[in-house]
Amino acid sequence: MIIGGIYSFNGGQEVIETKYSNELSEVINVIESVNSARHKTKVSEEKTMPGKLLFKPSSLNKSFKREFTARGWGANTRVLCDYPTEFYTPDYSPPSVAKNAFREMDFVKNRLGGEVQFGKYAFMVYNVCAKMTIFHNQGFIDAGVEIVPLKELASEMSTGVSYFEQFVWDLEHRGVSNIDIPVLIIGISG
After folding, report:
1. pLDDT, tens digit, for every residue of 137-169?
2. Domain spans of the chain?
3. pLDDT confidence tier of residue 46, bands split at 50, 70 and 90
4. How do strand 112-116 and strand 143-149 relate by DSSP bridges?
C-alpha cells in the first residue's frame, strides 16, 4: 500500500513527527508492508460488480493487525463501559443494561493510538472526534493516527466504505474543539 494523503488535525502531524517519530516510522513501514494484491477477492454474482476483483476490508484489517502486532503495538486496548441508568425516565424500564460493554482502540504504543478504518463513514468521525478523546481522558493516549482509504481505494472495495477526501472535508468544516487531541490522518491507496 502507499500513502497518498496526509491531513494534520489539531496539529497532529507536527506533534507526531516531533514526539512519536519512531512510532510514525513504524506506521509508515506497516502501510508499505501490506501487499494490496493479496486482499482482492472476486465479487459474487449477487453483488453490484459481479466477477470484478475488489479489495476485501476484513482481509486488509487482518494484515494491518498482524503487522502492527509484530512491531509491538498493543492490539485492542479496551475501556469498559459502565452505562448509567439514572437517566431513564420513570416510564421506561430497560430489559437489561449491557454488561461487559467496551470501547476499543485498534493499536496503542507509547501513548500513541492507532485506528485502521475500512468501515462505515460514521466510524471515521467518531474515532477522531470521540473515541480518541475518550482514550486520552482515560489515560491511554496523547495523540492518534487514523489510517483510511483514499477515494480511489474505497471505490475498489467489496463493501461501501468512506474515504479520506470526505473525512478531511468534514473535519475542515467541523473545526477543532478544545477537547480534541492531535491526530494524523493518513489516506492510503493500493
Report:
1. 999 999 999 999 999 888 887 766 788 999 899
2. 2-83+99-189
3. very low
4. parallel
Which of the pair, 76 or 40, is modelled with greater confidence?
76
For the chain, give the DSSP string. Answer: -EEEEEEEETTHHHHHHHH-HHHHHHHHHHHHHS-GGGGEEEPPTTSSSTT-EEE-HHHHHHHHHHHHHHTTPEEEEEEEE----TTS-TT---S-PPSSEEEEEEEEETTEEEEE--S-HHHHHHIIIIIHHHHHHTTS-SEEEEEEE-HHHHTTBSS----HHHHHHHHHHH---TTPPPEEEEEEE-
The pTM of the whole model exceeds 0.70: yes
- Which residue is it, cell 420513570? 90
Under the banding of pLDDT at 50, 70 and 90, the label for residue 2 is very high
Looking at 3.40.91.20, 3.40.190.10, 2.30.30.240, 3.40.50.360, the CATH number of the domain 2-83+99-189 comes to 3.40.91.20
